[in-house]
Amino acid sequence: MRAPQSFETERLILKPTSEEDAPFLLALLNSPKWLKYIGDRQVKSVEGAREYIKNKMLPQLQKLGFSNYTVIRKSDKVKLGICGLYDRAGLAGIDIGFAFLPEHEQQGYAFEAAQEIKRAGIEVFGINQMSAITTKDNIASQKLLEKLGFKFTKMVQLPQDEEELLLYEFTNKN
């Protein structure tokens, strides 16, 4: 397998999440919107975040060459959020996802990062069909997915999850 790639946009660096990102990930996983829209991952320490990265993110990166990316602002190297492509149980195809710390929302970073990850998915990894899931009440996520060209297709339920989620899908026609 080739070495994992990082990606760049005008304002951002997207690098594969590594164990060094554990303090940042701890904050993100316990932010109010993460807990509300994604769920409590029971990560309560930097060591727990390191284990989460090691057990949940790195295996897919090693297996498929893509996974979770830490989004870093170029101008000051501040870690803003995450964006990635996920091989998620219960979903056909590859899922795109994103989450940002509250102080970095509403500045276009999520769209910029997700647009680059979508492009990389298609052009670098050959993924022509992507999906995305979100909760019924996460209107901001729904709007972002639509702006990225995803279309709502149906309601779904993931294994071991009682909540119905909105499934969005994108197919590259080129």
From TrEMBL:
Keywords: Transferase
Database matches in PROSITE patterns: GNAT (PS51186)
Keyword Transmembrane: no
A UniProt-annotated Pfam family: Acetyltransf_3
Domain N-acetyltransferase positions: 12-173
Annotated GO MF terms: acyltransferase activity, transferring groups other than amino-acyl groups
Keyword Transferase attributed: yes
Gene3D superfamilies associated with the record: 3.40.630.30
Taxonomy, superkingdom: Bacteria
Protein name as it appears in the record: GNAT family N-acetyltransferase
Organism of provenance: Adhaeribacter rhizoryzae
Organism phylogeny: Bacteria, Pseudomonadati, Bacteroidota, Cytophagia, Cytophagales
